[in-house]
Design brief:
Number of helices: 21
Helix content: 40-55%
Shape: elongated
Radius of gyration: 27 Å
Structural class: mainly alpha
Strand order of the largest sheet: 1-10
């Protein structure tokens, strides 16, 4: 149905129908209007396939084979203007902008509306661009942004590799794993679709659960496999925002236990954009219980880090954040005791700030909301342009953050900031000045 938008009823109709199919196919595959030269090349393949196979379908099959092996289909290419000097910046064409936009928001090719606007050289106009971004976000295809961005930034895709020890966590199964992932995606999608502030990623007092996940969280009255939105009351305060999601508590744990070290480093990297140093070579990092040793809480096992000067200076940067999450076990269930002892989630970071459990960690992040928003923008820009950022990009990131603050960090302000930024709409002509430069983000 996608390919055969027409089908000839007689031999006299074959040529016209083939041309129509070829024009549509090449327009979609090359992400630009098909030119006469494109149609001529593909028509030659159609005729050869038609003659060899003896049917109209054989001719179209040959066209599809030819299209799928064309470099313009396999690669996203951006042509450098001949009149631009080497090393100079230039605005990419509207057709190239359409591809960047569609692969950013849909992880797929631009649709007919985008291509028509781009071919008319109207897509770059601010009002038109804003209308198209709003349309694309509202389109179901924007679910690809939710899935791929949360997978990349929050490592939600890592839940697929999580294998908690069965004897310790017999309740964990593939159904719960899938529910974990779906919860984060639905929560993040609500932030985008409702144009909420990124603050709500931290403080959102609602989540999405089905019966399986609700039972794991201890939320009563939820039945059936379908997900529904639930308001989190005072008894479920720990589940607010991203920090309360079971998926993130699980991917930051070891198979048999929690890991405040891993969780603390993940928190700093994911929410504040700070990457703590790795342990020095030769340092023992295993904290597993030794044979014959009396059971200890994770906090007791970590005391060696505070008493060893070579460890304390680094661990004080991130370990308190991990300890604040200790009420979540290795599969994200809430607990108040460990090996028979009460869990103490209170910790003090190296600047003297006291964190009282998951709520205290959430409050700490909200006090540094600008830093958090800057990280979200940095990750979003990285995802959009398909390359890592360096120090040269940071003035742009800070500028985008400053502008988004004027709109209370609403997600639409982040998206529009990225798609209107020079990093997204501009390119720089290479010194060697090749005719075609490969796109930064291959799909």
């Amino acid at each position: 149905r996608r390919v055969f938008e027409c089908y000839p009823k007689s031999a006299s109709e074959e040529a016209g129908c083939a041309r129509r199919i070829i024009t549509t196919l090449t327009t979609k595959a090359f992400r630009r209007p098909a030119g006469d030269a494109d149609v001529k090349v593909m028509t030659a393949f159609y005729r050869a396939g038609r003659e060899q196979g003896g049917t109209f379908d054989s001719g179209i099959e040959a066209v599809i084979q030819r299209v799928l092996t064309d470099p313009e289909f396999i690669y996203r290419t951006e042509i450098e203007p001949a009149r631009v000097a080497a090393g100079a910046a230039y605005r990419i064409s509207d057709l190239e902008l359409a591809s960047r936009l569609s692969f950013f928001l849909w992880s797929s090719i631009p649709d007919e509306e985008l291509i028509k606007l781009a071919a008319a050289n109207k897509l770059h106009e601010p009002k038109v661009l804003k209308q198209q971004v709003d349309r694309m976000i509202a389109d179901p295809r924007s679910q690809a942004l939710v899935q791929n961005f949360t997978g990349q930034w929050l490592n939600v895709r890592g839940i697929a590799a999580s294998e908690p020890v069965v004897n310790l966590f017999p309740d964990f199964d593939s159904t719960l794993r899938d529910a974990f992932k779906r919860e984060v995606e639905l929560f993040f999608a609500s932030i985008i679709q409702e144009d909420r502030s990124v603050d709500d990623l931290l403080t959102g007092d609602y989540t999405f659960v089905n019966e399986r996940l609700a039972r794991h969280y201890g939320i009563p009255g939820i039945y059936g496999p379908q997900f529904r939105r639930v308001r989190l009351g005072a008894d479920q305060d720990m589940r607010k925002g991203l920090l309360g999601k079971g998926a993130l508590a699980t991917v930051t744990s070891d198979a048999a236990r929690t890991s405040p070290v891993k969780r603390g480093k993940w928190f700093l990297q994911t929410f504040f954009g700070v990457s703590p140093p790795d342990p020095p070579p030769g340092v023992e990092t295993k904290l597993d219980q030794k044979p014959g040793e009396a059971p200890k809480t994770m906090r007791q096992r970590l005391e060696v880090h505070s008493t060893n000067p070579s460890c304390a200076s680094c661990h004080m940067q991130f370990e308190p954040m991990g300890l604040a999450m200790e009420n979540f076990d290795a599969v994200g269930q809430w607990r108040t005791t460990e090996v028979g002892n009460p869990i103490d989630p209170v910790a003090t970071v190296n600047d003297g700030t006291r964190i009282d459990g998951i709520k205290g960690l959430r409050d700490l992040t909200m006090r540094k909301r600008e830093m958090f928003a800057e990280v979200v923008i940095e990750k979003l820009l990285t995802y959009a342009i398909g390359r890592g950022l360096d120090h040269n990009d940071m003035p742009l990131v800070r500028s985008l953050t400053h502008n988004a603050a004027k709109e209370d960090y609403r997600f639409s302000s982040l998206i529009m900031g990225v798609v209107q930024s020079p990093a997204f709409t501009m390119n720089m002509k290479s010194a060697a000045a090749p005719v075609v430069a490969a796109s930064a983000r291959g799909q």
